[in-house]
Amino acid sequence: MHDPFTGNWTRQAHVSAEHLNSVRGLNRRFLDLVGEGLFLPALRIQLAPLSAAQRAAAANCPYALFDLRFADEAYWQARLQMTGAWRIADEPRADPDTVDFVRLALFYTWHVASSAGLTAHLLLGMHSQTAEAFRGVAVDALSDLALAEAANLTARWSSCSAYWTALTSAAARPDSAALRRVQLSGLQLAAATQLPSEPREV
Length: 202
Known about the structure:
Distance between the termini: 56 Å
Largest sheet: 2 strands, antiparallel
Shape: globular
Structural class: mainly alpha
Helix content: 55-70%
Radius of gyration: 17 Å
């Protein structure tokens, strides 16, 4: 069955249905990982009561619900120049399920960054220079990078508890329109994070 949510977003943002389906699948894996895992305890408490179908509904967003510091341009430019040094992680290694997810997410990130246009920016919040740096990484190096970066996995907008509370609450109710409104509000959050901060008048 055609998903109108995906179709509408494809027409609006010129992101392919394939990319939207992929990011939705990664979102679902991420929500399952948090709901059944040992990290992000506050979000885990919110996700734990949701059924698999409710988590899948919550995951149906036209953007990533997970984050690996994608908006931190300086971090990734420095990190991706450290070829050969990724086996030595600065943080303790995460559990295997988290590392597996990060590996999959980084493969997808590399693939999206290799695409033309604004796909990496729209889906992941990644700046163009970060996407360019990912394009320069050999695909066989990503597994080692995943081991080093697993400690950075977090929820997107993790400091915005109102968004996550609204998302999980809407997913728990049989009101698809309310859930869609919350999911679309994430686009406003994504746009707001890209706005330059202006000094306030004294």
